[in-house]
Design brief:
Elements (H helix, E strand, L loop, with lengths): L16 H4 L3 E2 L11 H7 L7 H13 L3 E8 L8 E8 L5 E6 L5 E3 L5 E3 L14 E3 L2 E5 L8 H9 L4 E3 L6 H19 L2 E4 L3 E3 L5 E3 L3 E3 L5 E4 L17 H10 L7
Parallel strand pairs: 1-2, 8-9, 9-10
Antiparallel strand pairs: 2-3, 3-4, 5-6, 7-8, 10-13, 11-12, 13-14
Bound molecules: N-(4-carboxy-4-oxobutanoyl)-L-cysteinylglycine.
N-(4-carboxy-4-oxobutanoyl)-L-cysteinylglycine (KGT) binds next to loops.
Amino acid sequence: MVKNTPWTPEDGAGETPKMARAALFLPEASDYIGSSPAESKSLAQPVTTSPFVQGLIQEAQHHHLPISVGIHEPSSDPTSSRIKNTLIYITATGQITQRYQKLHLFDLDIPDGPTMRESDIIEPGREILPPFPTPVGKVGSQICFDLRFPEPALALKRQGAEILLYPSAFMPETGAAHWMALLRARAIESESYVFAAAQVGWHNAKRRSYGHGVVIDPWGKVVVELGGEGTGEVEVGFVDVDLEKVERTRKMVPLLRRT
Ligand SMILES: O=C(O)CNC(=O)[C@H](CS)NC(=O)CCC(=O)C(=O)O
């Protein structure tokens, strides 16, 4: 595992086995963070016309690198006044093959503290996406606030997930109190890798994200942790995924076997 090693296109020259077995995981809402509900809604674009998504599709093809990325999309219901918060998976050939819509929305109300009503802007998803194969393992998708709910993580594990995704834009206040504990709990109880790519630093005058993007292994060990909101710097972490660790952990502590 190497932290913050710059990736160069040469690493991916041709169809080397290394690149063929890599994937990039980006945070929730990587396309934009709006400064108001109206702005968030007005910026949502279908993937077919979104310059952000189309750019990533080109990069995925160019580097033969699948990309998981959180974005906003217009509702499928033209009468809806809300948009979707989704996680899409772009294959190395540039196809969008998976689309998960955030199930749980962040409505926070802390007296004299931060408040947030995501449900005013975002329309909730209704289903868990079956785990799907990627070059680094079988992936189950969740988004940010979903991480407070153990049930979908366990359901995804039972359906075969080896890696759980929690792309996020956590608040600094709740992040400091809960982020790492929740992520480690999800990894330990599901005996899966957890990949939590996270937004970091100021987005606009009002909004700041906690950062601390992490990868946690199935034993609960933090394998890589990036910087927090203090730095506000964008960082990339590199991790070698060892799927045998998933198998070994599940054998050592057999949580699903009935005796
Ligand atoms: O606003 C966007 O465009 C993208 N969405 C987000 O940033 C979402 C909703 S505000 N953030 C969270 O769910 C943070 C959860 C959190 O911080 C907690 O559970 O404590």
